[in-house]
């Protein structure tokens, strides 16, 4: 395969390919750049659904028992009689919001989009190792998205056992209304999602290992490729475990087994299950669930590393340390899952082991944070929207990560477990940081995808309002969480001790509504710029990596003629002895030029 990849020096102009129809170009395309766009736009559409859900349940928490016309319009008479949200509807919204945002927006929007777009372009390959498998993986993702959305329309309502779908709520169909057909569709959708994720990951790994162009050694790869490569490896290790959990849960629900069930009573009736353990499900779920947060955040880290170096006009600080920290995070992320289960009755000694490995993961994370800060220190900063979102990501990653030290300690965690403190922590460190990484990547590589530029001023508005509102939503949550306010309660009016927190919840909801409204600025900017944006030049950011050597109008095969050869690492910015402040990877070393760049 690799030999073919390197020897294809044909002129890849349009004469070599059969005439493309609309269907072969835009629907069943095997071109990695088109598949990246398909993943991105699907991720954006799913993101709209996920954000609308979060606004609905935020309104319910801020103004419980109030009647809203929009509830009646969007949820229907059954879930919101007279415009007042029922508790079942609230649980369903929380569950579906979590599922859609974690898997269908962040995993697909980051890994699916940017692995597809950047891996072949940045390592100098004509395309992915298997174009057909790549196309198949997108269409299985699309099918899985459709099934997940369709579960919103079944009569008994969608899954509502939380996005972690712990048994017995998810395993006994008669447990709650959302345990019926909606839960089954959730499991089928997730099984398909995992399948496409594995197909994509294997494709990315093989492409990086086998199809690098001449001179592209592993230590000359951009950090984006390192993070996408390691993310794919984590996916191959961790996703099959969730698949097994989902299949065993389907058996428990539909075939009378009891892997996760034991001694269940419903309305006085004794069910026939015995011998299973719901804690076993927690182990299987979190064995994927913790690496999953790194599957989401690692690509964002890679994109941000690339953008910070390019926009600060400086070489990335500590290139090898960054690679080592990515590998360390990948390894440690698979041995910390127990910190989600400190209150499950875990053996205290085991709890202390998980505390140790969890606190250990702070070290490679801190290495990355310090290296980012050092990269922009005294740089010639170009404050474009991509750079602002990258700096924003470093900020939320640090602030969100600090609370992880509290949650990672088994004794401190008991006080704040299952409160809004946890919600604040993971939304900042994973949700908002990953979204910022995704926005940064979209603003930076938009010219590569569509040959046009996004509007800079709209990008500034988008960043500043989003930044203020994100902290406005999640910063106060730390305090109501430390005061003991539990999460996933659709109203707290039954508890007089929480009355004084009503105002904080209203404040959070107002920030959420404003922040979401300003995402329309981004949507307008994105879709308008595809058609009417300013035409891009070949290398608008004056970057050094290979993708900016391809033509502005994308062609199937990426480079007309031979694939360029690589001579240097990807971060030769502001190098002494050159007239320009960037030296592309394709420029050979000059006589007497310093080669020790790491």
TrEMBL record:
* TM spans (from-to): 39-57, 89-119, 131-154, 185-211, 223-251, 284-305, 317-337, 349-374, 386-408, 420-446, 458-484, 504-532
Q: Which Pfam families match?
A: COX1 (PF00115)
What are the residue boundaries of the Cytochrome oxidase subunit I profile domain, all occurrences included?
22-567
Cellular localization per UniProt? Membrane
**Record's SUPFAM superfamilies?**
Cytochrome c oxidase subunit I-like
Q: Which PROSITE patterns match?
A: COX1, COX1_CUB
The secretion signal range is none
Which residues are in coiled coils? none
Cross-referenced Gene3D superfamilies:
Cytochrome c oxidase-like, subunit I domain (1.20.210.10)
User: Which superkingdom?
Assistant: Bacteria
Asked if the Swiss-Prot or TrEMBL record annotates the protein with the keyword Metal-binding, the reply is yes
Keyword annotations for this protein?
Answer: Electron transport, Heme, Iron, Membrane, Metal-binding, Respiratory chain, Transmembrane, Transmembrane helix, Transport
Give the membrane topology: Multi-pass membrane protein
Q: Which family does it belong to?
A: Belongs to the heme-copper respiratory oxidase family.
User: What is this protein identified as?
Assistant: Cbb3-type cytochrome c oxidase subunit I
Species for this entry: Flavobacterium agricola
């Amino acid at each position: 395969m690799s030999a073919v990849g390197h020897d294809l020096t044909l002129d890849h102009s349009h004469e070599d390919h059969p005439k493309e129809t609309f269907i072969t170009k835009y629907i069943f395309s095997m071109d990695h750049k088109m598949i990246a766009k398909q993943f991105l736009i699907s991720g954006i559409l799913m993101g709209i659904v996920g954000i609308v859900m979060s606004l609905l349940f935020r309104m319910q928490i801020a103004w419980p028992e109030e009647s809203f016309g929009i509830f009646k319009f969007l949820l229907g008479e059954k879930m919101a009689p007279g415009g007042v949200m029922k508790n079942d509807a609230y649980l369903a919204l929380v569950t579906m919001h979590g599922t859609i945002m974690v898997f269908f927006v962040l995993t697909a929007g980051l890994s699916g989009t940017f692995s597809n777009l950047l891996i072949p372009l940045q390592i100098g390959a004509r395309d992915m190792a298997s174009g057909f498998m790549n196309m198949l993986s997108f269409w299985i993702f699309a099918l899985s998205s459709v099934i997940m959305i369709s579960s919103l329309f079944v009569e008994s309502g969608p899954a509502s056992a939380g996005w972690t779908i712990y048994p017995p709520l998810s395993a006994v169909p008669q447990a709650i209304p959302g345990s019926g057909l909606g839960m089954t569709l959730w499991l089928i959708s997730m099984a398909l999602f995992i399948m496409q994720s594995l197909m994509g990951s294997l494709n990315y790994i093989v492409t990086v290992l086998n199809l690098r162009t001449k001179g592209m050694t592993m230590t000359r790869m951009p950090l984006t490729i390192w993070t996408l490569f390691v993310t794919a490896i984590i996916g191959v290790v961790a996703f099959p475990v969730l698949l097994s959990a989902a299949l065993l849960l389907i058996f428990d629900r539909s075939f009378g087994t009891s892997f996760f069930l034991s001694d269940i009573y419903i309305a006085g009736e004794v069910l026939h299950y015995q011998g299973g353990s719901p804690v076993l499900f927690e182990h299987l779920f979190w064995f994927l669930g913790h690496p999953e947060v790194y599957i989401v955040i690692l690509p964002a880290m890679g994109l941000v590393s690339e953008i910070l170096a390019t926009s600060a006009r400086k070489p990335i600080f500590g290139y090898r340390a960054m690679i080592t920290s990515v590998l360390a995070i990948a390894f440690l992320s698979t041995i910390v899952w127990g910190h989600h289960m400190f209150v499950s009755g875990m053996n205290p000694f085991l709890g202390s082991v998980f505390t140790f490995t969890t606190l250990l993961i702070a070290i490679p994370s801190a290495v990355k944070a310090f290296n980012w800060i050092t990269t922009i220190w005294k740089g010639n900063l170009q404050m474009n929207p991509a750079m602002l979102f990258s700096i924003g990501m470093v900020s939320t990653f640090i602030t969100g990560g600090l609370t992880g030290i509290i949650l990672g300690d088994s004794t401190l965690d008991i006080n704040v477990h299952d409160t809004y403190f946890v919600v604040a922590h993971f939304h900042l460190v994973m949700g908002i940081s990953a979204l910022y990484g995704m926005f940064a990547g979209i603003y930076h590589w938009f010219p590569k995808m569509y040959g046009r530029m996004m509007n800079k001023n709209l990008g500034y508005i988008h960043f500043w309002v989003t930044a203020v509102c994100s902290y406005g939503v999640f910063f106060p949550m730390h305090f109501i969480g430390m005061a003991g306010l539990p999460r996933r309660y659709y109203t707290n009016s039954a508890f007089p001790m929480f009355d004084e927190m009503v105002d904080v919840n209203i404040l959070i909801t107002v920030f959420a509504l404003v922040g979401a409204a300003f995402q329309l600025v981004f949507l307008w900017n994105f879709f308008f710029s595809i058609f009417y944006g300013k035409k891009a030049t070949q290398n608008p950011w004056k970057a050094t990596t290979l993708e900016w050597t391809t033509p502005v109008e994308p062609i199937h095969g990426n480079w007309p003629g031979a694939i360029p050869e690589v001579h240097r690492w990807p971060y030769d910015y502001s190098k002494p002895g050159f007239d320009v402040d960037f030296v592309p990877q394709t420029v050979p070393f000059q006589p007497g030029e310093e080669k020790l760049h790491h």
